[in-house]
Amino acid sequence: MPKGFLTHLAPLSMVSFVERDYRILASRFRMRKWAYRGRLRGIQDRAAIYLGVRRSDFNVSWFAYNQAFWAVRHSKNLGRKSLVVIGGFDVSEEEDPRLQHRLPTLRYVLRHADCLLALSEHLQTKVLALEPTARVELLYPGFDATRYAPAGSKAPIVTTISFVRHANLQRKGLETFVRAAANLPALEFLLIGEWLDDSIRYLRGIAPPNVSFAGWLPEPDLIRALQQSAVYVQASLHEGFGCSLAEAMLCGCVPVVSARGAIPEVVGDVGIYVDPASPEDLARGIRGAFDEPERGYSARERVARLFPLGRRGSLLISKVEELLA
Predict the structure, then answer these.
(1) What share of the chain is helix, strand, coil (3-state, %, to 5)?
(2) Residues β-bridged to residue 195
(3) 104, exposed or middle or buried, with CB in 10 Å at 0-12, 13-18, 19+?
(4) Distance (Å, whole) CA 43 – CA 302
(5) Of 195, 276, 284, 314, which has the highest C-beta tally within 10 A?
């Protein structure tokens, strides 16, 4: 059985979409993994990545970040195969203001990885703009439509999911989301996501009484929250795909979204589009979503049809087998 090595970014517990890929790969290959923790642990992490690459037949890096640079570089020197998943912030100046400073290592990854898999056409275009010779292919994420599914009746709840940090107040539309709640006092607004800095104090300071901050939730509780929510908001300035958005759509939430990044690829014509900088326009979109609850059924059907987990699984395994052939 071929041996594989997956590198991802901290925290040590992988986010759901990375964990799904790891489980897919582990069903066919003997897999190991490592979480890259950044420059403060750089020497230790680089040594672990070197050993992981050397002891494996292939390696997969989630995001074209520093850990991917070392994995691809060691792969080139050791004659191993490297695959990098392009996730969003890694190639997007909208999400990473330091992108220009990372260009030398980023372009190395884009030039020398044996295969690049972009989560959206939008990201595929960004990769080719940065490095026209990149061997980049489109492979959409996949989602389990049986696990993420409607259950029971919907409540008058509007939900969004994001890490809570200063950079995301505008980038992920968190401030717009909280301020929009003042225009809709009869609805409950729920922000789910780990608090990474003191920006939570700012959001609490501007929040009306109908806004709740749940913090991080384990997956079963997260699914229950989405099943209860009637509307899901993604008022981002950029998304490389929008995995939480797709999961909410599978749970029957009506998507109220910006038309930025890859969001239109996910939502198509089943959602309601708004200005991500305008709380008033977001409130308008949310009102419209409650007037058309049938959009939730269309949203679920779209994600189940276009982004099935089985398709990503079979294509991901096929791509690795092709590299090893």
Answers:
(1) 45, 20, 35
(2) 164
(3) exposed
(4) 45
(5) 276
Give the Cα separation of 258 and 276 in Å (integer). 6
Residue 12: is its pLDDT beyond 60? no
Query: Each residue of 207-246: pLDDT tens digit?
Result: 999 999 999 999 999 999 999 999 999 999 999 999 999 9
Burial of 81 (0-12, 13-18, 19+ CB in 10 A): buried
Name the burial class of residue 102, with classes exposed (0-12), middle (13-18) and buried (19+) by CB atoms within 10 angstroms of its CB. Answer: middle
> Token pair for residue 238?
């950029």
The tokens describing 262, both together, are 């890859």
Sign, CA dihedral 151-157-162-164, equals negative
Cα(231)–Cα(293) distance, integer angstroms: 9
| Closest by CA position to 83, among listed 119, 128, 113, 48 | 113
DSSP code string of 97-138: TTHHHHHHHHHHHHHH-SEEEESSHHHHHHHHHH-TT--EEE
CB atoms < 10 A from the CB of 12, how many?
9
| 314 contacts 142 by C-beta, under 8 angstroms | no
From CA 150, how far away is CA 248, in angstroms rounded?
9
Structure letter (DSSP) for residue 145: T
Both tokens of 111, joined, read: 């030039």
Helix (H, G, I), strand (E, B) or coil at 142: coil
Averaged pLDDT of the chain: 95
Question: Which tokens hold the place of 281?
Answer: 């326009």
Q: What residue ranges define each of the domains in the chain, with the CATH number in brackets?
A: 3-142+308-324 (3.40.50.2000), 155-306 (3.40.50.2000)
Q: Which pTM was predicted?
A: 0.93
First-to-final CA distance of the chain: 13
